[in-house]
């Protein structure tokens, strides 16, 4: 259905998608279980992200949870089955929580409630994180006898520092939205009722006023440079600068400024892989 220029695709599946202008909203949809993840849900979530990344109409992706929670972790029936359940749950490597980091388009999490365990990993795997005032963050792994899952031990120290990361991972304690903001785990905290609107407004500003090619390039640079030396990062930057200076996005940005209008940047081309 369409409402005021907004197209909505909704059903009873575990993942819902909605498109508002150039922003795709992907919603984890098991509210009765605080959006606990099932094997099929993980695969559907990855498929929804890839579909958004491949859709030329979409420029920014927002991820949130239905109801009162973001994601309470893996479904308890999986944990009850031990190693057998874990192996059955684990999605293909290309569908792991860090998939969002490997997409070309920005992915912003609107954390509307608890992000726990595997839900914490999925939340962490976004490029930016907005949180409701009632949100809380719990790694939980140590309290369940588990390892830090799905690359959290690599990414979390790079985002907030080694000692804060060790605090969250070793203790498994609950962190409020305010504390998460102070340690840099989230980008912004807003009243619960304003979370999705605020996040989508931020995403829409990126979608409408930033060049998709620049968003994709900068995202690739930031994550790629985490594993590069400073010298290698500088060489990569200089090559990308030359390409950007000769590209159509800069010309369109300068023309739009001169004509005092909004830029009309080209969408990303289809993926080559």
Stretches where pLDDT is under 50 for at least 5 consecutive residues are 1-11
The average pLDDT is 90
User: Which strand order spans the largest sheet, edge to edge or round the barrel?
Assistant: 1-2-3-4-5-6-8-11
Q: Tell me about the biggest sheet?
A: 8 strands, mixed
The gross shape turns out to be globular
Helix residue percentage: 40-55%
Note the run of SSEs as H and E: EEEEHEHHHEEHEEHHEHEHHHH
Given this structure, which CATH class of the largest domain is correct? Alpha Beta
* CATH homologous superfamily title of the largest domain: 2-enoyl-CoA Hydratase, Chain A, domain 1
Class based on secondary structure composition and strand pairing: alpha/beta
CATH-derived architecture of the largest domain: Alpha-Beta Complex
Termini gap:
32 Å
Output the radius of gyration.
Answer: 19 Å
What is the percentage of strand-forming residues? 15-25%
Number of strands: 11
